[in-house]
Amino acid sequence: MRLSCLFALLASSVAAETLVATRTVRAQTLLGPEDVKVIERTIPGMLSHLDEAVGLEARVSLYAGRPIKPEDVGPPAIIERNQIVTLIYRRGGLTIAADARSMARAGVGDSLRVMNLASRSTVTGIVRQDGAVTVGGPDLSLYN
User: Fold this and answer.
1) What is the pLDDT of residue 137?
2) Among residues 68, 77, 116, 118, which is most buried (max CB within 10 A)?
3) Is the dihedral of CA 55, 61, 63, 68 positive or negative?
4) Shortest CA distance to 20 belongs to which of 58, 54, 1, 48?
5) Please, what are the averages of pLDDT over each run of 10 residues along the chain (144 residues)?
């Protein structure tokens, strides 16, 4: 068997898939199984399985038939822009809490810029499940 025939045989036996939107989905919409579908086409760098998008929030508008990138979706936002949040700074055994204003929308595990209301300084932290934003050392309770 010639090499080109062998390559064609291997390529036809491997079905690659890409995830696309079934309709136009506005940003900030939670995605359900009816909003996305899998097509048999390979587009590198795009999502390829339903479970990679269902239950997440569209971060940008998604258009019918267009592939979905990993950065187009994310965890549902629990913090809105301009919301007052608790800012937690941890370093070693020291913990300091302060009020801060969020500079954007964000979900659990997202990086978020916030402005400390007391000092007016802007810092970037990670959103915890309870809605607080942690900066400084590692936070073992990030998802608890």
Assistant:
1) 65
2) 68
3) negative
4) 48
5) 44 68 96 95 91 95 96 95 96 92 95 96 96 78 46
Which pairs with CB-CB distance under 8 Å and at least 24 residues apart come from 64-68? 64/20, 64/21, 64/22, 64/23, 64/24, 65/20, 65/21, 66/20, 66/21, 67/18, 67/19, 67/20, 67/43, 68/19, 68/20, 68/21, 68/36
DSSP string, 9-41: HHHHHS---EEEESS-B-TTPBP-TTTEEEES-
Token pair 């809105």 is found at: 80
pLDDT for the residue 136: 83
Q: How far is CA 95 from CA 30, 98, 144, in A?
A: 34, 10, 17
Residue 24 neighbours by CB distance under 10 Å: 13
Q: On the CB side of 42, how many CA atoms lie within 13 Å of its CA? A: 6
Vertex 138: Cα angle to 134 and 142 (nearest 5): 55
Token pair 């036809």: residue: 12
Token pair listed for 116? 């400390």
